[in-house]
Amino acid sequence: MADLDLVIRGGTVVDGSGARPFEADVAIAGGRILQVGRVAGRGAEEIDARGKLVTPGFVDIHTHYDAQATWSSRIDSSSYNGVTTALIGNCGVGFAPCLPERRDALVKLMEGVEDLPEVVLTEGLPWTWQSFPEFMDVLGARRWDMDIAAQVTHAPLRIHVMGERAEAHAEATEAEVAEMARLAAEGIRAGALGFSTSRAIAHRTLDGRHTPTLGTPEAELEAIGRAVGAAGASWLQVISDFDDPEDEFARLQRICAASGRPMTFSLLQRESRPWLWRFLLEKIEAANREGAQMTGQVMARPVGLMFGFELSQHPFVARPSWQKIAHLPFDARMQALRDPALKSALLSEEIADPMLRARLNTWDMIFPLGDPPDYEPRPETSLGVVAARRGVAPAELAWEWLMERGGKAILNRPIINYADGDLEAVRAMVEHPQTLMGLGDGGAHVGIICDASSTTHMLSYWTRDRRRGPRLPLEFAVKRLTRDNALALGLGDRGLVAAGKKADLNVIDYDRLQVRVPVMQYDLPAGGKRLVQKADGYVATILGGAVTYRDGEPTGALPGRLVRGAQR
């Protein structure tokens, strides 16, 4: 008789602590790791991991699967990339609390902020809740291929309490602030791991209305922070433009200190202010010395827009001739694009909006994505440089490259974390002790960004493949993706390959580990499209002792549950 549920035999364990890898068996019973070492007992199932890595499952602290988790049991692309726990409810946008008459406002906001089409959300969301605890109960009844944790989000709170005045950015009354604080604390007591808000001007609906939380007075955020802190929240999550970096950071530090809880915010290198990330890191260091627990959320590669004729954006998308064919199905669009007259018109037209032109037609910052994808492309491989070398117009070359693979070729436009033309700034952010790995944005920006694979990329590229600068130790990268994030969320039961911990694990063929090229799938509600990015090299992903993915494909096991509150 087998006395164990699962034994992983002879793997190289990278345990998440930062310690050097070591060879060991891992025994699992009852969803927990029972033993790490030489296991004499036999498992009902055994995995031969000789020559393979055994790591904790990855903990993704920045996703937007708020909608997907209500209609799908598979939380991909993250689940294809070794993630076993994902945190939703980031950037202050979500779907609870919500009265029936306010649903449209939240849908339009999520559509604009996170690029999830209104028709997809309208058809897909079941709306079987009004309060945040009811939303948690709905999630609690579902099963997934990973565990899900949630946050209370600020925009729904404001709209729920203030109605249209929130969308008009009115200042909340004292009574309204108190009610928002009460409801936020109620959400924490229902099991949310934190509270999130957005102070970013780019977060707006498609018709141009800014997120209701933009410019929220400090007093409101402080009151909510105190309430959720008293209720036991894990943290406060913020995204901000830092237009006045000194003033804004000081404000956030005061809010953090008043709440008595950690605060984390997105830390990125922007093209317009490539120095700002370093300034903010210095502020983070000073804040922690003064007793405020503050961290920057970073990602180990550029945030890149994916350009393609099948995707939501490309260099011609804002040109008048494209608008004439944009509504057509893909095959019909491709047929139209082969018309010499349409091609000539597309190439000759200009984009009037200078900001949009900078995003779509900065030719020296557009690169072939490649296969396998290259997320640290050399400047001399850019569309602009190659066009100049060939003596052709950049628009002509862009059209040529986009027409490859039957019109399904993808170009990469890194808009964040690539102002220097390499990833050395990113390396400094990743190595800093007061940063956390996040910002993959899984479940959002489904037609233009596919960064949920950044977990796989961090291991394969930064520890093995990088040639343009120093690499990172494997044990460091694993620790950043697992134990560091788990502890930051208050999830002490996972993120470590050790006896007594939750049996969330990856068995990885390190030599084969590699992200694939993203592909477009049309499997969202209402036939909506989304980019999905799989990976090679995952021999098995294990959640609570059950194998959920084997050789990169789902097994059908759905042991994932809603995580309610901190886990010891």
From TrEMBL:
<feature type="domain" description="Amidohydrolase 3">
    <location>
        <begin position="45"/>
        <end position="549"/>
    </location>
</feature>
<protein>
    <submittedName>
        <fullName>Amidohydrolase family protein</fullName>
    </submittedName>
</protein>
<dbReference type="InterPro" id="IPR032466">
    <property type="entry name" value="Metal_Hydrolase"/>
</dbReference>
<dbReference type="InterPro" id="IPR050378">
    <property type="entry name" value="Metallo-dep_Hydrolases_sf"/>
</dbReference>
<dbReference type="Pfam" id="PF07969">
    <property type="entry name" value="Amidohydro_3"/>
</dbReference>
<dbReference type="InterPro" id="IPR011059">
    <property type="entry name" value="Metal-dep_hydrolase_composite"/>
</dbReference>
<dbReference type="InterPro" id="IPR013108">
    <property type="entry name" value="Amidohydro_3"/>
</dbReference>
